[in-house]
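Supplementary Methods. Inverse-folding protocol.

Structures were first reduced to a discrete structure-token string of length 660. This string, shown here, constituted the complete conditioning input.
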């Protein structure tokens, strides 16, 4: 069983005490022998304690420590000693500075200088206790050690944007070593994958975005993350549909609608996943990130009743499982409306074995070329902070080290093309040297077409995300709902109820190709919505159910009553018709109302680009683990399965290494 945060804290505390006890005893013994290397060894011992306990490297200036240790202290009082040392540090480091180091340590602009000062101060206090108390050092040391550990623990998590000690934006430091695994993309699959691999091997996660923590648009269910450029990147497909990509740690789970629903048993068996491990992996995710929704909003409650009245049966109650009929789905929003993204799964990581580098955009995969197949050896990336290009290498002492792409359907496909893996003709057009002619890279991409209908409610509604799903058996459509309160200029308030329908397994497929060689640019993508005639036929069947839903007594409760005492639903934008008899008109409606859930997938499809273990065909030590491998999108909403996939493949990779 994975340790809790408290258990990990307690473990670190014991480790800290063990290390620094030895450092201090050695220092005090050698201090009285006038050992010339005592200060140097003391500083080195403290630095080792910091690295071992917190997984971060700090350098304490030896001259600085010696200067402080030479200060004349008055009396033996602990608090007076501490005050004098703090004042001395402020004067020594920056005589004109009026900043308070405790405050700075907790500011959003927190930098490690303040934490370094904290360590130096505590080191000096410990040294002074050695002078003042000599044989009675234990009492003073325990006081200082408690204070020191408490503050270092707080400092490691004080910035809301960087809650883990292993998260950093320091590209130079991250690139100064090699790793057993480099995971490109800290998204819905990448975070659980990296957390799992870090239990036994060193892992670097390259994430092009920043932290999701402390951003209201992400954390609050009322937020609008898809329109926030800090966490999302919009683009328009060649079909003219507005879509969005995540650009933040946690990936799509940080900007989506929050629905948590597993894939169907049929889907899992068709892919030939290990069912036992699949469900164990789902449960691993769900311990932190999935919540049952026991209180339905007004609109969701009415939609649930309306679906049942429209014949979307049976009623399956609260369940994470994919079951035909009407059900209350799970959510990654907790009971307080706070989002829990895939980044939360990094709580499972071993902090000593993982580095999560933020604001780092991968530009290409590096390969070593020998007599056999090209072998992935590292990744080149650009730091969004300093604009510099860095190259980072895999651990060359291990034949099993891998680069793993988890950048999503668009990002992973784009990176393969930028690295010279793709259709040879397309690579030539972009002046990219072809490493491997892989004709299916970027092919068979797909997005599930959807249609949303917005009803202006005659009754007050509250803001709510999607809480339920109608899973239609005969037409392979999914229906979801939500509501919002729209305030216009602060004077006019509209209450809006939304009914969404999504085509489950479309047959239409498209292509992705490069717009430029700049990885920051979105590539071209065309999904060819409704290009297959059967997709349109299925949409028509689904729209008929939507019409029945809108005509149900539960939804009609929100209609307006005219002067003739008849009820009429008011739609904002495209309206659902009352007449279901004209299939051509309904097909036209499907096209006019065309939208997206942003559940696009494919581009590195299993069987075409990667094999059954998701290793890229034609090269070694390169794997893809994300939604780009899917032929079809899993479940009503794919995030549950994609988070599961990260854990599932992490276990598989660890098992492969054990066998090898």
């Amino acid at each position: 069983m994975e340790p809790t945060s408290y258990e990990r804290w307690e473990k670190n505390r014991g480790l800290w005490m063990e290390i620094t006890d030895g450092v201090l005893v050695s220092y005090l013994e050698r201090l009285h022998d006038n050992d010339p290397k005592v200060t140097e060894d003391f500083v080195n011992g403290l630095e080792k304690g910091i690295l071992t306990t917190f997984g971060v490297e700090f350098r304490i200036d030896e001259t600085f420590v010696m200067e402080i240790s030479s200060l004349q202290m008055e009396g033996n009082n602990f608090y007076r000693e501490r005050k004098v040392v703090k004042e001395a540090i402020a004067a020594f480091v920056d005589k004109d500075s009026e900043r308070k180091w405790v405050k700075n340590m907790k500011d959003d602009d927190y930098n490690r200088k303040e934490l370094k000062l904290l360590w130096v101060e505590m080191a000096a206090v410990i040294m002074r206790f050695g002078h003042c108390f000599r044989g009675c050092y234990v009492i003073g040391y325990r006081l200082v050690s408690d204070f020191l550990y408490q503050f270092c623990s707080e400092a490691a998590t004080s910035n809301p944007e960087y809650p883990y000690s292993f998260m950093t934006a320091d590209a130079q430091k991250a690139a100064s070593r090699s790793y057993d695994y480099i995971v490109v993309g800290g998204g819905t699959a990448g975070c659980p994958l990296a957390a799992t691999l870090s239990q036994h091997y060193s892992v670097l996660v390259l994430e092009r975005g920043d932290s999701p923590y402390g951003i209201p648009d992400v954390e609050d269910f009322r937020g609008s993350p898809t329109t926030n450029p800090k966490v999302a990147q919009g683009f328009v497909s060649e079909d003219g549909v507005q879509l969005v990509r995540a650009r933040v740690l946690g990936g799509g789970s940080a900007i989506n609608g929050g629905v948590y629903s597993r894939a169907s048993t049929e889907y899992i068996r068709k892919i030939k996943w290990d069912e036992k491990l699949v469900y164990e992996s789902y449960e691993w995710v769900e311990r932190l990130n999935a919540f049952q929704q026991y209180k339905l909003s007004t609109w969701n409650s009415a939609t649930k009743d309306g679906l049942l009245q429209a014949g979307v049966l049976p009623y399956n109650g609260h369940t994470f499982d994919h079951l035909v009929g009407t059900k209350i789905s799970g959510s990654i929003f907790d009971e307080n409306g706070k989002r829990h993204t895939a980044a939360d799964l990094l709580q499972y990581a071993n902090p000593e074995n993982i580095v999560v580098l933020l604001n780092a955009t991968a530009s290409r995969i590096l390969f070593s070329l020998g007599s056999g197949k090209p072998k992935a050896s590292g990744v080149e990336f650009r730091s969004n902070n300093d604009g510099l290009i860095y190259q980072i290498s895999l651990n060359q002492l291990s034949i099993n080290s891998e680069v793993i792409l988890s950048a999503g359907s668009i990002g992973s496909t784009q990176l393969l093309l930028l690295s010279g893996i793709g259709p040879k003709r397309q690579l030539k057009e972009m002046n990219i040297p072809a490493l491997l002619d892989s004709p299916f890279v970027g092919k068979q991409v797909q997005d599930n077409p959807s249609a949303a209908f917005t009803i202006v409610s005659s009754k007050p509604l509250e803001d709510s995300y999607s809480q339920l799903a109608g899973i239609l058996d005969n037409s392979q459509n999914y229906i979801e709902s939500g509501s919002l309160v729209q305030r216009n200029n602060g004077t006019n308030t509209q209450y809006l109820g939304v009914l969404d329908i999504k085509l489950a397994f479309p047959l239409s497929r498209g292509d992705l190709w490069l717009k430029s060689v700049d990885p920051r640019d979105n590539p071209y993508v065309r999904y060819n919505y409704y290009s297959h005639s059967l997709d349109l036929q299925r949409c028509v069947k689904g729209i008929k159910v939507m019409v029945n839903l809108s005509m149900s007594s539960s939804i009609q409760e929100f209609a307006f009553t005219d002067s003739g005492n008849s009820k009429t639903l008011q739609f904002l934008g495209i309206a659902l018709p009352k007449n279901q008899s004209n299939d051509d008109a309904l097909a036209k409606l499907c096209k006019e109302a065309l939208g997206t859930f942003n559940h696009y997938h494919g581009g590195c499809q299993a069987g075409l680009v990667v094999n059954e273990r998701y290793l890229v065909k034609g090269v070694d030590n390169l794997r893809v683990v994300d939604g780009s491998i899917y032929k079809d999108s899993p479940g009503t909403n794919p995030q549950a399965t994609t988070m599961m996939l990260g854990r599932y493949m992490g276990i598989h990779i660890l098992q492969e290494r054990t066998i090898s």
